[in-house]
Amino acid sequence: MALASSPRRRDLPLCLLLLLSILALPSLTWQASVLGERSLDALSSDAISLLVSTPDPVKNIDPTNPTSHLSKILIPRPPDTENSTIVRNYIISTLRALKWDVEEDSFIGETPYGSKNFTNVIATKDPSAGRRVVLAAHFDSKFFATYPQNQFVGATDSAAPCAMMLDLAEALDPLLDARKQRLEDGLEDDEDVADTTLQLLFFDGEEAFKDWTATDSVYGARHLAERWSTSYISPHTKRRLLRPSETEISTVEHLILLDLLGAPHPLIRSAFLDTAWLFDAMISAERRLFDTGSFAYGDDEGSSLTSFFLPRREGDGNYGYIEDDHVPFLRKGVSVLHIIASPFPRVWHTLGDDASALDIPTMRRWNLILRVFMAEYLGLQPETKAPRSDDGQAHQSVAHSELVSTFAVMEWSWRLTLSSPVTFDQ
């Protein structure tokens, strides 16, 4: 073979061969394990104003608009039905239109009514990122065997949360594109945060077919948590090298689960101490949005604020969890922020959980809170200054790129000459 017959390659010292092999890698930066608790950089008032206005935070969650995301989801959609397929395909087409990577996780589960087909939808903005924050909700509606209960549409449970997630994808998509470009150009200050992508997870089969038990509930979540915990990631498939022991589930930074949202006057509690700081960050986002007048809508001038969140008190422990899609992941060590109204909406699991149970100002506020909170979590910065109309900016950018490339070549040449490797108060 050519490689074996090359005397020049054989004569090189082993340490230099190793150095050349390492230097030949395009990017040798190891993925940090978990970012954990950290300070989130607060967006400026101007940046918040941009997120509030673009896109329109009402159009995607308006049940009177037949083209809104909410209207497309707000139909009876139990697992393994034609309507379930219609809703799933709508979610998929919406995210693929944004050029997100979309996976359909299909499987067969055993239910009290026999075998059923389930499909989770997993949408990832940047599959090459080494870690991800997962925002999730279930898209199925509860199964009822007889009429008229089988017309249940689950507006708060969880059509509205799914529509909010699609709204978030549209709002943050250009910011995520811009951040990825800055990361690839070497212009991001914090590469660990910048290498964290947003993943949207739409669970199938959250609802029990009969009575909620360990085997008749969260079908999609149980399947996916098990699959991810046993799926090892090849270290070279991501932008930065991963440890050989990394699984799909170990690269989830946080799972943020939305459920039973959209009705007026929700009350959200902090369930887990390890994500209490994220709960506080969401409260902070809500407060700053109020301070900038962003909650003014229609006849409501936004002059007073009744928070969606129950503030934590010093000494609070784990609140205890409500059974939901997060539990299989929690049991496998994933850090969870559970955003669920407690007490449940009064229309829970009744035919009254339809469009009439939803409140547009409430859903609009949720859209804005999610936009600001997730933008700050991911280190996204809306562009608040108009670009220059002359060519100065472009020339400066090109000059900078050429300078970076020149220094990269100089560094490469230099290395080859070496013989050894070198809180917010509410």
From TrEMBL:
Signal sequence bounds: 1-31
Gene Ontology biological process terms from the UniProt entry: proteolysis
Keyword Hydrolase: yes
Pfam family, one: Peptidase_M28
EC category name: hydrolase
Keywords: Acyltransferase, Hydrolase, Metal-binding, Protease, Signal, Transferase, Zinc
GO molecular function: glutaminyl-peptide cyclotransferase activity; peptidase activity; zinc ion binding
Alphabetical list of CDD domains matching this protein: M28_QC_like
Xref: InterPro entries: M28_QC, Peptidase_M28, QC/QCL
Residues of the Peptidase M28 domain: 120-372
Family the UniProt entry places it in: Belongs to the peptidase M28 family.
This protein's name: Peptide hydrolase
Source species of the chain: Heliocybe sulcata
